[in-house]
């Protein structure tokens, strides 16, 4: 039923409200546009990448390469603009083209060589990280007028919070992701493949094209996340963003998307990101808690979400049983 | 149609799977405005032929032409673009998408470049109303029954087919009323000049709707003949390559229950919203047939008896001792067996071999600590491969490579192999060819004589007449009556069902449905 499809999303939303409520109860200061602004800015790159991951997981796949792609993007941009003298805009275009092509290649391998996405993107993870090291092993600062302009671009919300460029970019990506998932044929096809690949094929879903597009999209968004990350840190470093793919997966799952594919919402992923960011903010406000608590709480949340999803699958199976005819 | 170029034409189509020839040099012709039945035993190559025609498989050799133009569909989408709509035997659509999304997958209505779910929903309601289906099209397909899913699949294919419509056993889980609705839609399409290929194991349906029939046997085409003037016996013998022994039409002898030991009794067992409380005593050596429309509570009855669902009232006794099953495992432990209706969903372990699929339930019953030896496994598998005439190149072949009907036989074999005391069969002959059909009916009689107690759910009334010693009649999720041996004929069963439906003022429109069924019976 539609309601049961929406249930995980609703649960995530309620958890978010409760978590925020608890935070505010303890630290009334957390109810401010500053906190909201920072939440968006700090998690912008992760949010952008997680939207791509949502599509991958909806199709029943996984993309382990995005952390490395983010690092590669940063290093490439820093070195291209700095050492090679490539005009910033051109550098951005080139890096997005490179990352998108890289994703398309992984998608093609997954489809045509019938290899598990886990293996292919694991290889992609090593490869992209290696390429980043090849370009530079240092943390390379980025100095470009374009960067200064974009970093200086923000909207001051009432209460003093800043809605930064990358924060808005993340929200825009989420919005576009929602449109793509629910209002395009491509989006339907992603859900279809995640539901049952063989049935989808017999219903005429272009499996090859869709698979390639899914991974191209994920890598494109990882590239975009890399740009956001370089705007956030003003540098490119080949050791950056290690493990970001796991954070993205966690956000997607907490957002109510089934790891088995075929069911979930892009909007849920945004909530997942915000919940994770909120936990981090809480720990910063508290000041005495070690940052490991973030990981522990996220771990617990993941456990409970997986249990919740199992429960839902079980429930809907029972309900389906009830709807079966004699 | 003579002298004109046929709508769809295949010449010399050949297909091998790992050295096993599934089709050899098959010619096929479909004219515009005809309904062409395709028949053959399980494993004859029917599904393979249509998968080749529709781009799901690549042929090894041969030529396909649509309206005289050579075509070479690389995938299903290609075929859809050419105006060929198909319902494949195994496709159950996508359970995670809504009904409307399933209907319009790949051709979503668009507004301003974006898909319009609202428009899709509206048109879906419109399409499904032609099939007498008034359901929430925004609900995910998983919430609906097999029959509803099958109708949705058909509706989708019909809507997709501009020129050719291909249906691979589309009526397997439909009841009489739904079948006649489908047929009137097919007649319409035919009048509009579509060519329709229709695969079925129901000869009644072939004679009712088809204009011509093509018979396949062992991957070869035997003949294409007009239905008019074709004797049924001739059709069957072309299909089997031998004469089918005439079925003994008379029913089972009346049983003196007082002499038969009671295997299990169910008293006032029921579950709210699924099946009203019922009493049922199962004796050794009897076959209780269960008749009723789709949704009348037949499967629900079986599920309560086998511990798949738990009753919220009533008493169960096995061998006179109270029992309750919290899971099928406990029921199996008491010597029960259950061969479910939706075998694709509940039964087949795709990648395991035929042998492993056959011994699965028996092994589970013995416990994994006492494994069957390889030799025992092979003996059991071979015995049932022979008994049920399962067509497979060898017993170690993964079951997913068997034809649909042969997969069903394997699952049936799995439950027979456990040699249960009480065996529940839900639609045991669905999708199974005439030859094997007769074989299974004979087998049911044999098991009964050996003292097994059987409960057999079936939509095929002739079949119930052939083996049931009494027939339970269900309507609207209630047990409404019972027919004793001697009084069981297709006609009495139908009347009993209709009477049951009439009694219930239920929201399904009991009266209308009952009338429809009787009309169906008269036709
Ligand atoms: N994907 C496959 N791989 C290997 N063998 C296959 C495959 N599909 C079909 N076969 C084999 O080809 C033969 C024909 O199968 P097909 O499914 O066409 O039969 P069918 O006439 O549709 O039978 P049924 O009435 O049981 O559906 C069978 O022997 C089957 O085992
Ligand atoms: Mg078949």
From TrEMBL, chain A:
It is found in: Cell membrane. One of its GO terms (cellular component) is plasma membrane. GO terms for molecular function: transmembrane transporter activity. InterPro entries: ABC_transp_permease. The keyword Transmembrane helix applies. The keyword Cell membrane applies. It is a multi-pass membrane protein. The chain crosses the membrane at residues 6-27, 39-58, 64-82, 89-112, 118-142, 163-183, 212-232, 239-259, 265-285, 297-317. Keywords: Cell membrane, Membrane, Transmembrane, Transmembrane helix. PANTHER family: ABC TRANSPORTER PERMEASE PROTEIN YPHD-RELATED-RELATED, INNER MEMBRANE ABC TRANSPORTER PERMEASE PROTEIN YJFF. This is Sugar ABC transporter permease YjfF. The lineage of its organism: Bacteria, Pseudomonadati, Pseudomonadota, Alphaproteobacteria, Hyphomicrobiales. The gene is yjfF.
């Amino acid at each position: 039923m539609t309601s049961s499809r929406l249930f995980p999303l609703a649960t995530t939303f309620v958890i978010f409200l409760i978590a925020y409520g608890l935070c505010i109860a303890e630290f009334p200061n957390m109810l401010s546009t500053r906190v909201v602004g920072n939440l968006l800015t700090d998690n912008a790159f992760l949010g952008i990448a997680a939207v791509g991951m949502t599509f991958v997981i909806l199709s029943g796949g996984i993309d382990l390469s995005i952390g490395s792609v983010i690092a590669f993007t940063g290093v490439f941009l820093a070195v291209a603009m700095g050492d090679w003298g490539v005009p910033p805009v051109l550098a951005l275009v080139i890096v997005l083209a490179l990352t998108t092509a890289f994703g398309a290649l992984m998608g093609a391998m997954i489809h045509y060589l019938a290899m598990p996405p886990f293996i292919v993107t694991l290889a992609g993870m090593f490869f992209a990280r290696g390429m980043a090291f090849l370009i530079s092993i240092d943390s390379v600062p980025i100095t470009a007028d374009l960067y200064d302009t974009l970093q200086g671009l923000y909207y001051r919300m009432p209460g003093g919070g800043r809605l930064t460029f990358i924060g808005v970019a993340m929200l825009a990506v989420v919005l576009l992701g929602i449109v793509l998932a629910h209002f395009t044929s491509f989006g339907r096809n992603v859900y279809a493949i995640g539901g049952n690949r063989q049935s989808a094929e017999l219903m005429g879903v272009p499996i090859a094209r869709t698979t390639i597009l899914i991974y191209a999209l994920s890598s494109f968004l990882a590239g975009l996340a890399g740009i956001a990350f370089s705007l956030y840190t003003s540098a490119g470093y080949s050791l950056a963003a290690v493990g970001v793919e796991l954070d993205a997966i966690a956000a997607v799952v907490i957002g109510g998307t089934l790891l088995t594919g075929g069911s979930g919402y892009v909007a849920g992923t945004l909530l997942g990101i915000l919940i994770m960011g909120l936990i981090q903010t809480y720990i910063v406000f508290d000041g005495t808690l070690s940052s490991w608590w973030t990981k522990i709480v996220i771990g617990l949340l993941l456990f409970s979400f997986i249990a919740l999803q199992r429960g839902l699958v079980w429930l809907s199976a029972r309900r389906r049983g009830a709807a079966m005819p004699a | 149609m003579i002298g004109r170029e046929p709508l769809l034409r295949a010449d010399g189509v050949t297909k091998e799977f790992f050295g096993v020839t599934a089709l050899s040099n098959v010619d096929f012709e479909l004219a515009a405005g005809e309904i062409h039945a395709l028949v053959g035993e399980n494993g004859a190559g029917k599904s393979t032929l249509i998968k080749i025609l529709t781009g799901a498989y690549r042929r090894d050799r041969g030529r396909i032409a649509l309206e005289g133009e050579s075509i070479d569909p690389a995938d299903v989408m290609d075929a859809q673009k050419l105006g060929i709509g198909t319902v494949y035997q195994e496709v159950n659509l996508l359970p995670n998408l809504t009904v409307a999304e399933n209907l319009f997958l790949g051709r979503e209505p668009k507004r301003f470049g974006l898909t319009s779910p609202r428009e899709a929903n509206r048109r879906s309601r419109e399409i499904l109303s032609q099939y007498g289906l008034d359901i929430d099209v925004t609900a995910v397909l998983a919430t609906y029954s097999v029959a509803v899913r099958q109708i949705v699949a058909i509706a989708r294919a019909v809507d997709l087919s501009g020129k050719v419509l291909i249906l691979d056993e589309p009526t397997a889980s439909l009841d009489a009323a739904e079948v006649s609705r489908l047929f009137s839609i097919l007649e319409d399409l035919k009048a509009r000049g579509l060519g329709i290929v229709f695969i079925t194991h129901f000869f009644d349906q072939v004679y009712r709707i088809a204009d011509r029939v093509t018979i396949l046997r062992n991957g070869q085409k035997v003949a294409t003949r007009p239905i008019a003037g074709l004797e049924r016996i001739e059709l069957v013998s072309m299909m089997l390559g031998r004469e089918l022994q005439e079925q003994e039409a008379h029913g089972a002898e009346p049983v003196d229950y007082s002499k038969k030991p009671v295997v299990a009794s169910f008293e006032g067992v029921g579950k709210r919203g699924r099946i009203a409380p019922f009493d049922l005593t199962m004796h050794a050596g009897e076959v209780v047939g269960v008749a009723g429309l789709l949704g009348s509570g037949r499967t629900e009855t079986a599920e309560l008896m086998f511990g798949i669902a738990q009753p919220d009232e009533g008493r169960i006794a096995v061998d006179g001792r109270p029992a309750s099953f919290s899971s099928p495992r406990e029921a199996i432990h008491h010597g029960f067996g259950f061969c479910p209706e939706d075998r694709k969903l509940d039964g087949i372990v795709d990648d395991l071999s035929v042998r492993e699929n056959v011994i699965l339930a028996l092994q589970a019953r013995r416990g994994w600590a006492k494994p069957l030896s390889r030799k025992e496994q092979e003996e059991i598998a071979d015995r049932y491969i022979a008994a049920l005439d399962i067509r497979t190149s060898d017993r170690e072949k993964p079951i997913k490579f068997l034809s649909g009907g042969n997969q069903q036989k394997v699952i049936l074999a799995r439950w027979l192999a456990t040699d249960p005391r009480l065996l529940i069969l839900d639609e045991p002959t669905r999708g199974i060819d005439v030859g094997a059909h007769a074989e299974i009916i004979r087998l049911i009689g044999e098991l009964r004589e050996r003292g097994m107690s059987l409960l057999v759910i079936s939509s095929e009334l002739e079949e119930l007449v052939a083996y049931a010693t009494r027939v339970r009649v269900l309507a609207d999720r209630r047990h409404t009556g019972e027919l004793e041996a001697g009084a069981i004929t297709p006609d009495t069963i139908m009347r009993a069902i209709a009477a049951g439906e009439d009694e219930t003022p239920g929201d399904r429109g009991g009266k209308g449905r009952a009338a429809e069924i009787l009309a169906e019976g008269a036709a």
